[in-house]
Design brief:
Largest sheet: 7 strands, mixed
Shape: elongated
Radius of gyration: 27 Å
Number of helices: 13
Structural class: alpha+beta
Oligomer: single chain
Helix content: 25-40%
């Protein structure tokens, strides 16, 4: 037998890898041997292999092969994440190329296109891993929207909700105007951006004097509801306690508040307060009871709440408002300015801080044992310097926004009732029983139930709106009846997990609503959130 003088991977690697797969060399079944299992961090179904994947998966392969050669029952479980935002963007782009707008489709029609796209284009990265020779148990390939993962995600959601760790409320979130969905803090990437610092003139009401305010976002003056100065700033000692100023161009009279939060050394020491579109302004607004005026539509255009610039795109408005302020004599000056701006990791557009009704996972109790494990060296970082980085992150972690306004994902298992409130349940029958208990306590309610629309994003799986039978059971299971007639927005609870295809027969909408909702009223565990829901639902 002649040995080639050069290695030809095309002839060797595919031959032997195909042989390994045919002989089920990498397959594992439970037996008496010591188990050794790795679950692959699921790459996005839209993804392509890059150097990060190469390094990560090579290390996993080394570990799993060593365990296998050591006589352990080694199992490397492969799979992909359904990647709600990325996949939905791909499907929307594909439909647009065909002349179809998402807004013209029902949710069911859109999901048919999404599943077709996934079956045709998804999973390329798993084929690339095969090319690398990854020794995964391919018979166990999972998808975060398959039936088993979806059931797990929904069960975990219901369990965490019952334990009081998941709640629904109006909070400041990172809003992606391109994907038209909320994002978690971890999905926002801060980049250095070159812009301008605009110095605006706010006239003190009843006088001819003005206060100059520096801002990087002049378009948000439409939502200004106060002006804030530091009480220790001598420059503003002349202002009376009940001073008010006029918002430039808008003409709105707003109060001047005093708080040590304002940095005397930045700009002019005066801060415009826009509670609906800045996290820090929101906290000031809560502290002083200020009105919050949301000036943006979900797509980043200006709404008609103020009656100015309605329909304009936010960055086009920034240019226009600079011209209008200058023409009105309300622009003192501009300066070139560099600052860090948050961008969506998924779509690459600048995010907008926005008040929105969302679902959140309370993180404090969950973070404490995770922090303790690292600080007591039960888990060790290499290099060790990242131990303090991790501690700082965990000690300052915020509640996690786990809902997304998308169609591709697992639907949140919440049922909204006729006169406010909701119940969270794994099945329709369970939801009905909870509604009956509420009715027995609070008395009957009349009217039709409201349906909502949300999906999940947690480390377990994405909770898109899905219907599926539970294992070993028969009959329909309607998860998340959250669709309001005439309203095409959707919220998806994204919990890193799988979804089923929603192919089962569902009872007629009218019959289902009457069966579930008629005559029952949910208890209001968080009255302030239920009341706010009327404004933001």
């Amino acid at each position: 037998m002649q040995i080639a003088d050069k290695y030809a991977p095309q002839q060797i690697e595919s031959k032997w890898y195909d042989y390994w797969i045919e002989q089920h060399i990498f397959h594992s079944e439970p037996d008496q041997r010591e188990p050794y299992t790795i679950v692959i961090p699921p790459p996005n179904v839209t993804g392509m292999l890059h150097m990060g994947h190469m390094l990560n998966n090579t290390l996993q392969d080394v570990l799993i092969r060593r365990a296998r050669m050591s006589g352990k029952n080694a199992c490397w479980v492969p799979g992909t994440d359904h990647a709600s935002i990325a996949t939905e963007a791909k499907v929307v782009a594909m439909l647009r190329e065909k002349g179809i707008e998402k807004s013209s489709l029902t949710r069911e029609e859109f999901l048919r296109h999404a599943w077709e796209w996934k079956e045709k284009y998804g999973g390329v990265i798993l084929k690339q891993l095969r090319k690398l020779g990854a020794s995964c148990d391919w018979d166990r390939t999972c998808f975060t929207m398959d039936e088993a993962r979806t059931e797990s995600v929904l069960r975990v959601f219901c369990d965490l909700y019952e334990k009081g760790k998941i709640y629904r409320g109006v909070r400041m979130v990172n809003w992606d105007p391109a994907a038209q969905t909320a994002l978690s803090d971890e999905e926002v990437v801060f980049k250095e951006s070159h812009g301008k610092l605009y110095y605006l003139r706010y006239r003190v009401e009843g006088t001819d004097r003005t206060i100059i305010v520096a801002t990087t976002r002049p378009e948000t003056i439409l939502g200004d509801t106060a002006l804030c100065v530091n009480p220790d700033d001598e420059r503003y000692a002349w202002l009376p306690e009940d001073a008010r100023v006029i918002v430039p161009l808008v003409g709105r009279s707003v109060p001047v508040i005093r708080d040590t939060y304002v940095d005397i050394a930045f700009g002019t020491g005066a801060l415009k307060v826009t509670p609906a579109h800045d996290v820090n302004d929101y906290m000031l607004g809560e502290k002083y009871g200020l009105e919050s005026i949301d000036i943006f539509n979900d797509d980043g255009t200006i709404n008609d709440k103020v009656g100015l610039y309605a329909g304009m795109e936010r960055f086009a408005l920034r240019k226009q408002i600079e011209k209008d302020l200058d023409a009105a004599g309300l622009l003192e000056k501009t300066e070139d300015y560099t600052n860090n701006v948050g961008y969506s990791e998924r779509t690459g557009v600048a995010i907008e801080p926005k008040l929105s009704m969302q679902w959140f996972l309370s993180m404090q109790e969950l973070a404490e044992p995770a922090t303790k494990a690292v600080m007591e060296d039960a888990i060790r970082f290499v290099p060790e310097k990242y131990k303090n980085t991790y501690r700082h992150w965990m000690e300052n972690i915020k509640d996690w926004c786990i809902s997304r306004q998308l169609w591709w994902g697992q639907r949140i298992p919440a049922y909204y009732l006729p006169k406010g409130g909701f119940v969270v349940a794994l099945t329709t029958e369970e939801a009905l029983e909870k509604a009956r208990r509420i009715a027995a306590t609070d008395g009957p309610a009349t009217g039709r139930g409201r349906a909502g629309h949300v999906v999940l994003v947690v480390a377990v799986a994405h909770l898109g709106i899905r219907r599926h039978p539970l294992p070993g059971q028969q009959g329909d299971r309607l998860l998340l009846p959250h669709q309001r007639s005439g309203d095409r927005s959707r919220h998806h609870l994204l919990l890193g997990g799988p979804h089923d295809h929603g192919r089962l027969r569902i009872p007629p909408r009218k019959a289902l609503l009457e069966r579930l909702l008629h005559g029952y009223r949910a208890r209001q565990d968080r009255p302030q959130d239920v009341q706010a829901a009327g404004q933001f639902a």
